[in-house]
Specification:
heterodimer, A: mainly alpha, 79% helix, 0% strand, B: mainly alpha, extended
Chain lengths: 235, 108
């Protein structure tokens, strides 16, 4: 273990992830505040950040618990939101194939938007899969540790931050950083447009149902547009 | 369901299902390839779900009829342009927050 933590690949992964970690601190603070608002104690807040370990799922779960949404709706909404992890899993699986099973299971736990981006970049340039695996572990751990600290800080001290700073705006900004680069093909733009229109048009629905309904509509429209585009090209 | 119990049920079930998504193709069914239609649909999950998540945080819910072009909406549009050019989270966050603060101070 010491050997692993001292390896250059591990340290490189850890250090290279730090700028992204800094960017996620405001988001983590908001998640901690959200957990407190949902009625969690410090252990519950830590449980959310340590076990769920997904800002999007945490913020939605906290909002829905606070809105007294039924358990099944909370689980359904966060699961569809987490389907993007399934996509990351499929994309990175070929690179992890040579690694031992316990490595695969451990690295999978750290798979998140930022770590995925960093890991796939490394796998593209480094043919040594085990070195790239240690790099993945380093960046994953850096993000996991920062995330716990940021969420805890938000839980305990979030209310000290002046509301005039509009810290909560950091959350949509982090998602915009993820989603805007996708707006490069027509099906993605259509998926986003329909989901966006639907979520606002259905804002009156109870229990934040508009999120899951709009998401599914957007995914369907994107998929259909993709199929239509392919047909069009094939003609 | 009682409050604390429900929260912990959410933590473990949502955490477990997130982990299943994460580990799925890496370890659970690593020998299978993804069905083509599923792969196609998954490609549009981030665009649809993240947009649906972002918009209510940017557009005020009760703003119908009132001015909808709020500092948050303008700052979000600016941040979208920054992010579209792949400048990353830090730049998107920095430019978006500064835009919001500037616009808010101009209004008050």
């Amino acid at each position: 273990m010491r050997h692993l933590l001292a390896s250059k690949d591990f340290r490189d992964g850890f250090v290279e992830m730090l700028p992204a970690c800094v960017g996620l601190v405001p988001f983590g603070l908001v998640c901690g505040v959200g957990a407190a608002a949902a009625g969690a104690n410090w252990l519950g807040s830590l449980g959310m950040s340590a076990i769920i370990f997904s800002g999007a799922a945490q913020i939605v779960a906290a909002q829905m618990v606070a809105a007294e949404a039924p358990f099944a709706i909370i689980v359904l909404t966060t699961t569809v939101l987490g389907l993007r992890l399934l996509m990351y899993s499929a994309a990175i699986a070929p690179y992890l194939k040579p690694l031992p099973d316990h490595w695969k299971r451990a690295l999978a736990f750290m798979l998140s938007d930022q770590v995925f981006a960093a890991a796939i970049r490394r796998f593209h340039i480094d043919d040594d899969r085990e070195a790239a695996g240690r790099h993945f572990l380093g960046s994953g751990l850096a993000l996991w540790l920062t995330w716990q600290l940021a969420c805890m800080a938000g839980f305990f001290a979030g209310n000290l931050i002046p509301s005039s700073w509009s810290l909560e705006f950091a959350v949509p900004l982090c998602f915009i950083a993820l989603v805007a680069p996708l707006f490069r093909d027509a099906p993605s733009v259509l998926a986003a447009l329909t989901a966006g229109i639907a979520v606002l048009a259905l804002a009156h629905l109870p229990m934040k149902l508009n999120l899951i309904v709009a998401g599914i509509i957007g995914i369907l429209v994107g998929t259909l547009a993709d199929l239509a585009k392919e047909r069009w090209k094939a003609r | 369901m009682e409050g604390a119990l429900k929260l912990w049920a959410v933590i473990f079930v949502v955490g477990a299902l997130n982990y299943v998504s994460r580990v799925s193709f890496i370890a659970l069914f690593s020998r299978r390839t993804m069905p083509p239609l599923l792969a196609r649909a998954l490609r549009y999950v981030p665009a649809a779900m993240l947009t649906a998540l972002v918009l209510p945080m940017v557009v005020d819910a009760g703003a119908a009829g009132e001015a909808w072009l709020t500092p948050k909406v303008i700052a979000a549009v600016i941040a979208t342009v920054v992010a579209y050019w792949k400048l990353g989270t830090l730049w998107t966050l920095g430019v978006g927050m500064v835009a919001l603060w500037t616009l808010q101070s101009l209004i008050t």
